Amino acid sequence: MMPRIYLDEFAPRSNLVVEEHIVTKPRFEVIDAHTHCGELFAGPNFEELFDTEEFVGRYRAMGVSHVVNLDAMYGAHIDRFLKKVAGFEDFFINFGTVEVSRMDGPDFEHYVYRTLREIAEKGCKGIKLWKNISLVLRDREGRRIPVDDPRLAPIFRYAGELGLIVLIHIADPVAFFSPVDRFNERVEELGAHPDWSFCAPGLFSFEALMEQQERLIASNPGTTFIVAHCGSYAENLAAVAAWLDRYPNLYVDLAARLGELGRQPYSAREFLTSYSDRILFGTDSFCYTNPTDHPIYYRALETRDEYFDYGCGALPTQGRWKIYGFQLEDTPLRNIYSQNAKKLFRLMS
Questions:
Q1: What does the DSSP assignment read for 68-101?
Q2: Is the peptide bond before 291 cis (omega within 30 degrees of 0)?
Q3: What are phi and psi of 149, to 5 degrees?
Q4: Which member of 29, 71, 92, 255 has the greatest number of CB atoms within 10 A?
Q5: Residue 11 predicted with pLDDT over 90
Q6: pLDDT tens digit string along 295-305?
Q7: What is the largest CA-CA distance in the chain?
């Protein structure tokens, strides 16, 4: 009798015999436009979690010339991060943020302008806003906050006026908004992280978040947006393409969506090629994470390899599938790897 195997025990080994190309160095210079190196994600003792010289050396050895640190925060937090990376400031492109929880305060607009101006004066190229705006925070009346709430408008208006890019994470994968049942393709991931499920009464649906996202971008044509994680909708590249066609102030990054892109290699290759001037390379990596997924991104973008893992772990971190390479041509590859970031962040070539 065949033994009953639980899903979390199932780890099949492929019998396919196909070409493999392990790419440890990219074909062109890389700017990783989505990393976390500061206090916001790593915690108040972030300085102790990584050695700056070792971190920079490790990334440079992988062909990365700069990283965008999204966790510089504001005020003294920025000063603290700059002290941590002293001597390697040219490697880090920093993004700050504002405290959205202050939105109901009487001086919020003044606070936003003052904070964003200071962020710009301290050399930050943009601000990062998180999904907690619409999925976690509540206003003083106890209501969920749409990301396009008029009370938040000063953030986006002043960011545009000050030349700060807004990198925003609005929604998680579609499966996180679906019931956690046998039909959910990320059931293992959600089982391991039940707090990642947003399928509950009173929460915005994925569709509602996408409507908010589009209204936000449309109503702020003078502000440049990078919508993280492939524009929030890597599962539907046709929708992301339509937004890119409609809104010239919109860019997207690839961070943490290689698993989605790699299982649709034909659609992804067409998308990455057609919109190569609006897409930024990013991994969503952390300063204290080693190894990172960079070589897997390089393999996917540069080769036509078949059926390989999209993460470093022994089991898939997202869904139970493997991915395929896109084998991009030189021009779109160079654009995505670094040229778009150089243009947006006003870097010397």
A1: EEEEEESTHHHHHHHHHTTT-GGGEEEEE---GG
A2: yes
A3: -55, 130
A4: 255
A5: no
A6: 999 999 999 99
A7: 71
